[in-house]
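ok trying this again, last paste got cut off
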Amino acid sequence: GEQCPFCGVLCDCTNREHSQHNAEYHRSQGLNGWRWRNSKKLMSDNCTTYVAGDVPFRNKDTNWKPFPYKKYRELNDHYSRWDIAADTSITTSAFWKWVYYKYNKDFAAKYSCKPADDISNWEFTRDQIQKDIEDKYHVTISEFN
């Protein structure tokens, strides 16, 4: 399936004929190697937060020139096919936050940059992760045990 050009999450649409991609829950962009230009630290917020803000991004698709997140759909066809809500209230799941927290240094090593430094409160218990998954995805994990 198609992946978000920023965080890499897969499109949620199950209809093969869909033309617009979206995902209800995006992940922290640092999980996909995005880092801050000056500090070289992995980014911790998700796509919906950056699209709602006033910061630019740079990558090979922008020829390394600043391009506003909120205008990402104007960049090219790949970006225009993604519908990313500009919403700071949508948070990354506890599971992905925990993965990022637990393996922050490993992700930094993989992407040759510095670890994110603002995720110390992302250490979750198994029960917190389970509750978050059940609330967000409307499943009961205990049914699978």
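PB: full thing came through this time. The helical segments are 47-52, 77-80, 94-102, 104-110, 126-137.
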